Amino acid sequence: MRDKRMTADEVVGEIKDGMTVGIGGWGSRRKPMTLVKAILRSGVEDLTVVTYGGPDAGLLCAAGKVRKLVYGFVSLDSIPYDPWFKRARETGAIEVLELDEGMFQTGLRAAGHRLPFLPIRAGLGSDVLKYAPELKTVRSPYDDGEELVAMPALKLDVALVHLNRADKHGNAQYLGPDPYFDDLFCLAADRRYVSCEQVVETFDGPPQTLLLNRMMVDGVVEAPGGAGFTSCVPDYGRDEALQREYANAATDLEQWPDFYERFLG
Amino acid sequence: MSDVTRAEVCVTACADLFLGAGETLASPMGLIPSLGAKLARLTSEPDLLLSDGEAFLLTPESTVEGWLPYRKVFDVVAHGRRHVVMGANQVDRFGNQNISAIGDHARPTRQLLGFRGAPGNTVNHRTSYWVPRHSTRVLVEAVDVVSGVGYDRAAGPFHDVHRVVTNLAVLDFDTPDHSMRILSVHPGVSVDEVRKQTSFPLIANNVTETRLPTDEELELIRTRLDPQSKRDKEVPQ
Hints:
Chain A is an alpha/beta fold. In chain A, 28% of the residues lie in helices and 23% in strands. Chain A folds into two domains: 8-115 and 155-264, Glutaconate Coenzyme A-transferase (3-Layer(aba) Sandwich), CATH 3.40.1080; 118-152, no CATH class. Chain A has nine helices and eleven strands. In chain A, α3 (55-62) packs across α4. Chain B has a single domain (6-234), classed as Glutaconate Coenzyme A-transferase (3-Layer(aba) Sandwich), CATH 3.40.1080. Helix content of chain B is 26%, strand content 21%. Chain B contains seven helices and 14 strands. In chain B, the strands form four sheets. Chain B has an eight-stranded mixed sheet, with helices on both faces. A two-stranded antiparallel sheet of chain B has the order 3-4. In chain B, strands 6-7 form a two-stranded antiparallel ribbon. Chain B starts with 5 loop residues before the first helix and ends with a helix. Chain A binds chain B through residues 26, 53, 71-75, 80-81, 85-86, 89-92, 98-103, 105, 120-128, 130-131, 146-147, 177-181, and chain B through 54-56, 67, 69-71, 74, 77-78, 100-101, 105-120, 122-124, 145-149, 153-159.
């Protein structure tokens, strides 16, 4: 079996200008921050970023990497709003596709199933469709004739996710309470990269925690602490102090260059 | 009891949102709705399902009784056995709600959270709103962005916006055209005051006074659910 271990910079070397990049996790939880930092340090730009947004969205906006953001929300959880995302929106710096959270998941599923769209009720009557006129509805061909949203596939060029454990072949395991949508991100993408707290020979714990199998993964990066400052339980919780520092520096731009330099290391 | 606080009245008003819910997932956002849901589970609605806000369903004794990661919450949303109590940066007379952005969505004056689950929640199952500061800025003639869907829009077979609980009153949509009306005002609040703090005309027939918590409910709120009185920060006396 193949050894898929690589470095974060090698992963980012696979990302070209203008690509669509999906980022796993949820809000400020289990974000692949080591991989995000490698993007921040790189020259890549003009990205479409698809995320249940946390500080990944804010940081990539801060670095000017984002042409378009596809999201259901952007939040730091314990801090409701991400200041960099707010600034990017309020200055008109980025294009957006703002979706209902369930529509977002349905779009990933459609992409993973190689379908052009999947129907969903969410979105009807709301302004999601008003601000995204490219989204269409479809009528049930059965007797009910119900009109539903035809959520288009959210196809990704690259998926970046962070899990607790992986082996060198790309099987990967989450040990926290929630898989989030990391498997769907991988199924929706052409190139799939998982960073992990630890590369292991064999997995401990119930096999149901093995969220990704090696068919779904092209590269494995061992990155201890690689989700910080977002949470990666049970390995560690969110570093609230560092997140607060991020949010403060992102609000008061005089503090930003100093914070950013230290953060990137 | 004469020393009942406004926050405590709001907690029981939120608990009463769940009357008749039975084995339904209660998803309260914010402190007062959470206290209300927990209170309902301990009193009127012992069959309610409550999550820890993460992936576990918990009993009142904090024992894990179920697993509900976000993807399974989406299944419950679509299946419909859920009553969400969401916040609202803006809500209008037909119950449209905005948590996305203030101003023009293309370039908002103030970016908020985003649509989150509001579009899906409101077309799939019962939805209520909690407004800790009832004012003309929140209860607006028309919301800037429709996140949660109101009664004047094509909302499908499962649309059910139930009530709006605020720090001043309980409101619902049980009128011929489903425009908002005052169901009850909290003790010490007048109908005029509620109207003054609302940007659109409110129907106000047969307005009652929001009930006070029972002694049992007060005891639960004060000694078991919120002994540190965090509720008073969300709704000052």
